[in-house]
User: Fold this.
Amino acid sequence: MVTTPSPIVYPESDGKPIADNTRQFELIVYVKKGIDWLFADQPQVFVAGDLLWYPIEGNNKLCQAPDAMIVFGRPKGDRRSYQQWKEDNLPPQVVFEILSPSNTPLEMTRKFQFYERYGVDEYYVFDPDRAILDGYLRQGTFLESIDSMQDWISPRLRIRFSIEDRQLQLFRPDDTPFETYEQIASRAEQERLRADRAEERVQQAEDEIQRLREQLRALGQNPSD
Assistant:
């Protein structure tokens, strides 16, 4: 009797939380959504946060879930995991990790080795507690450390990195800063209020014109004249 092997299941979760604390979570969202916005009009740039990446078909133990990863050449859309062999065998070219106190040196060494071995071109690590930003750029088969990350511009993303007041700041190619959700919401509210005030002024002007027309008619004049 011939038995059909069971299909390999690639788990959608590694059982770990997205973030260990609010600060780490806010930074992950800041990076991920800022890059989403940057490439919003480019359908062949896939951006994900905390998504399991499986580089090798048939091995459901070999995986990592970067805090943020960017894949150029793959379409946007929902995925349960990033199974590289189903994605034209394209690895994420850029990955980010935001450290938390629970991250051990051994864990981060393993992540570095994974990203180096499986094709990441740019790897960025930010430690918010120590305000330290590290970056690595692929040189052949290795990820080499970037000497200084202050005002570094990513070759792939074209964004600029900076540490200001011990905070990670990212800047778009036109040098406008990435914004937090609160900053975006505040700006949108201010723009809405400005639009409302402009609409109110237009209405007031139309009301005044109508009042003047009625006065002219009361005086026996044709407003059209």
The CA atoms of residues 136 and 145 lie 4 Å apart. The beta strands are 45-48, 53-54, 68-72, 82-83, 94-98, 122-127, 132-139, 142-145, 160-164, 167-171. The chain has two domains: 22-178, 179-225. DSSP finds three helices and ten strands in the chain.
